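User: Here's a chain of 311 residues. Predict its fold as tokens.
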Amino acid sequence: MKILFITANRLGDAVLSTGVLSHLVERFPGARIAVICGPYAASLFAAVPGLARIIVLRKRPWNIHWLEAWRACVGTRWDLVVDLRNSIVSRMLGASRRAVRGRNSGQHKVIENAAVLGLQPPPSPYIWLSEQAEREAASIIPARSNVLALGPAANWPCKQWPAERFGVLANKLTSAEGPLVGAQILIVAGENERAGLAPLLQMVPPERRIELFGCDLLTVAACLKRARLFVGNDSGLMHLAAAMGVSVLGLFGPGREDIYGPWGARCATVRTPESREELLQRLPSPDAHHPNLMEGLGVEKVCEAAIKLLK
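Assistant: Prediction complete.
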């Protein structure tokens, strides 16, 4: 059986789509699966069972990237095409069956994705780890380690909690009076985000700091799996940590936790005292400098939510 799975460009959306993919892997053992996704998420699918190939969709002017994706797939007769992008490609390929996402429903993305195949209850996101990723994670974080993971960056600066507050929070949670006494602090971000996180790095002693900047996503996922708690902004890393079964506290302000909250029984969110609508009204014109919209969220509120989640 040949299956084409078309998923998102953004990391978070791609992670949230993996529950549907895990259903396909279980429902059709032995199937050969091709995945179309963006470059940021491509490595997440490297260890999918039955993977035939990953077709990386790099955005091009005039939507030429969709033409390139079609050319890569048109020579195959597909038994099933699952299109979570509602793209023109799925309609222009030979397929015995198509399942295409419709308009946004306003429900959580996990529920919305599952509805494409009529799945109830919706399957949770799932990431397959390679042996190499597991080995690398074991060399970075020994098993049964006491680790607090932080995701202090975000793809939109307006929804990025100030870096120094992550430092204060980490010190509180890992102090002698905290729930994670003496824990190592795992900091995960892109290499290009290191400079902006200097206030956090300066507040965490080097001997207690584990840095993962610009690492392969499967290695990041394998390291996150070994953490006791993840605290991070509304981001793809937040969803990746939740998919690994970690206790996750997501920090929200201008984002939509009802649609993009971390998914799982061990997940929770905490938000600014201002509503999303109130925060978005503060944004100036598109050309102006955008303010940080997470300033209203205090450290104490986040700390209380983290302790409650751990309990």
